[in-house]
Amino acid sequence: MTTYYSEDHEWITVEGDTATVGITAHAAEQLGDIVFIELKEEGDEFESGDEIGVIESVKAASEIYAPVDGEIIEANELLESNPAALNDNPEADAWIYKIKLTDPAQLEGLMNLAGYKTFIA
Amino acid sequence: MSQATKRTPLYELHCALGGKMVDFAGWEMPVQYAMGIMGEHTHCRTKAALFDVSHMGQVLLHGPDAALKLEALVPAALTQLPEGKARYTFFTNHEGGIMDDLIVANAGDHLFVVVNASMRAQNIPYMAASLKGIDVTEIFDRALVAVQGPSAEAVVSAHCPQAAEMGFMETLEALIDGSLCRLSRLGYTGEDGYEISIPEADAERIARLMLGHPDCEPAGLGARDSLRLEAGLCLYGNDITPTTSPIEAGLTWAIQKRRRAEGGFPGAARIMTELADGPARKLVGIKPQGRAPARAGVVVHDMAGNTIGKITSGGFGPTVAGPIAMGYISVKHAAVRTKIQLIIRGKPQLAEVCALPFVTQNYKR
Description:
- The complex is a heterodimer.
- Chain A has helices at 25-31, 78-81, 85-88, 113-120, and strands at 2-5, 10-15, 18-23, 34-39, 45-46, 51-57, 61-65, 70-75, 97-101.
- By secondary structure, chain A is α+β, with helices and mostly antiparallel strands.
- In chain A, a hairpin with a 2-residue loop joins β2 (10-15) and β3.
- The longest helix of chain A is centred in the C-terminal third of the chain and has 8 residues, at 113-120.
- The radius of gyration of chain A is 13 Å and the shape is globular.
- By secondary structure, chain B is an alpha+beta fold.
- In chain B, α2 crosses α7.
- The longest helix of chain B has 12 residues, at 200-211.
- In chain B, 49% of the residues are buried.
- The chains are: A alpha+beta, B alpha+beta.
């Protein structure tokens, strides 16, 4: 199980050809109090860079961009009833999607934790 | 942040308190502190919050008949404004739109005027050019601090006993910790509170004194916006602009009887026609039925899919605990409880027209 990070402040934890995607604690902190999340549905396919959801904080709306190509296996239902969970626990319980990877080789274009820490420093 | 951004006398305090600084109308201002917008908003509704509003323009008008002369630029009745009272008004243009909103206070031997930060550069020269025989003096050496919330009276009167005796929209000069300040009992949150003009050198000390009260926490521009939206108060540039009239904006209450009868302000023709016949569109409250906030610019449809208006301010109301918005809607769809659709990211979302404000205003009467 390996975790990668995108320049759009997402994390993606990979197991085989499936992965869990969420936003980083840094992103959640920058967004402020999150009040609404609009998610894609199971079966939706996307390419790297596509908008795959919207997070609304008290301040503003921010798009979620796909870090890689894939297909949505599951969207986290917890976030519909409790979007604030994204502020509390964005790198664990408040994951956003489980996805199927189309091209695992794309992961090589992402950062590891050390790289991401440098990126946000 | 660009070199051109300006800092208020409380800049160092914001940084020391962990304020997240953003560029707002050319000023480096805190959008929030560690508590966050929701927490700051709720603190203001339940206890008290301190806001730095020093970016707004403070102006003194000295000279004979200043109130009468200013009436040529605004539709408020100012000649009858008693000493020690303040009034909300707006500069109108010749098309009957709004060029800025402002507070005018009768300070005895002069008028004390507060205009929006973004409009300082336009409206202060406009007053100087228009008000013949009046000295228009912009103040650069005073901070402006708002203390708002049900505990505001306790917070401020602990250092200024006269504050407790003031009524809503009253203004006076008084000492706070030895510094001569101007207090006005008004604000932009829907709560009781004060705006306090403080000599620059004393501003941080006095702000810290207020923040020393157990009920008072700092709040940023984020909470200021959600508080005013819940209170149904217009934001210049969004809800009131050079093309919206005060009648459309629901600000008829701010045009006193004599001025409605006499006119004599820019744009009086349109404004008096709309007063008599009613406007074609109205600023209304809008309550989305789902959870998605509808922000400024969202197009409003009727249930048949025809465009009937646009949202001018919108977001999440922490006290309402849901999304809220304001916008202009054609009058035939503007009745309370009319079902409408908001086009959010291309998809229609059900909403309802509702009365403003979204929360009860708790002013000192």
